Amino acid sequence: MVYPEIAETERVRLLTPPTGKTEVVLDTDTFNEIDDQFALTHALLSPEQIDLLAVYAAPFLNERSDSPGDGMEKSYAEIQRILKLCGRPDEGFAFRGSPEFIPGADQPVVSPAAEDLIKKAMQPRDKPLYVLTIGAPTNVSSAILMEPEIIRNIVVVWLGGSGLDWFNADGFNLDQDMIATRVLLDSGVPLVHLAMWPVTTHIATTVPEVEHNLRGRNALADYLADIFRDAVGDQPGKSRILWDLSATSYVINPKWVPTALAHSPLLTDTTPKRWATDPGRHLIRDAKFCDRGAIFGDLFAKIGAFREE
Question: What is the rounded CA–CA span in Å between residue 246 and residue 254?
Fold first, then answer.
């Protein structure tokens, strides 16, 4: 695949952290864990900072799904559930994604999500469209393969793999669809990399904190408290990382997720996979830290204040 050339000065300009209200689409494997539900809620309840244009269901395969397509369908149903709790219609807003992972190089998987992303990305706008990608990047990379010109108009914010200085690169979103991962890293699309270890691991909370801040506030808050408690249990001191909040938080206030420019890494074929560096590669932004206090303070305040009309 030959991707459009983007001058490095233009890529750096596009990678300038967002300010003001930002147009966003969210690509999410919503049923995979419980952090996606919190991230989707965070985006929906932040209209002053995020103009959420669409939500895409991403495929996943683990003990919660029978196949990537089953994971996508379960994620789509979970998106609908959160939208209903937030009083947001899903028609023309929530889209099914790929029923499978990308089967081979230059073989995108056409889906309503990928087609909608292309449509939105190619519309004229003053600032880039932010594509928050908090699952396997199958839908997003398929859209890039289908219409490579979109890389000039978008910024992909991807939670994937570990930190560039970590002892391995592995992570669920990275490993699920390696072809899609390599498209993100190799295509030259302006990319903000949100590492799992040791960066977004800061965004951890506990059952007592969630119960204190959410329980009884509204039906949405109770649902989120329920799924959190079900996932974590009642073991004293046990916490849970809500990794995906890093993506919404970066757009809401980039100071909560500070980043630095780095060269796009290469992935080795070893087990475990490792990052390799090449100073000739294009630049991306790489997250270095997450301010969990500011992030949870913002999230809990917005959920607690929500009142369905």
Answer: 10
286 strand-pairing partners = 193, 260
Cβ contacts of residue 127 below 8 Å, gap of 6+?
18, 22, 23
| pLDDT bracket for residue 1 (50, 70, 90) | confident
Bridge partners, 51 (sequence order): 23
Tell me what the mean pLDDT of segment 224-242 comes to.
95
Q: Any idea what the Cα angle at residue 249 is, between residues 129 and 235, rounded to 5°?
A: 140
Of 90, 88, 9, nearest to 44 by C-alpha is: 88
DSSP secondary structure, 212-228, as one string: HHHTTS-HHHHHHHHHH
SS3 (DSSP) at 199: coil
Q: Are 121 and 113 in contact (CB under 8 A)?
A: no
Composition of the chain by helix, strand, coil, percent to 5:
40, 15, 45
Q: Kindly tell me if the per-residue pLDDT of 251 is higher than 80.
A: yes
Helix 292-305 and helix 207-214, axial crossing angle in degrees, nearest 10: 40
The full set of domains in the chain, from first to last, is: 8-305 (3.90.245.10)
Please, what sign has the CA dihedral across residues 244, 249, 250, 251?
A: positive
Q: What's at 99, amino acid-wise?
A: P
pLDDT at 291: 98
Q: Which residue has the tokens 């600032």?
A: 127
Alpha helices, DSSP H, located in 100-161 = 112-121, 138-146
Rounded-to-integer distance, Cα 276 and Cα 283, Å:
14
The pair of structure tokens assigned to 73 is 């369908």
Average pLDDT over residues 174-183: 97
Q: How far apart are CA 80 and CA 28, in angstroms?
A: 12
Asked whether 207 and 234 are in contact (CB, 8 A), the reply is: yes
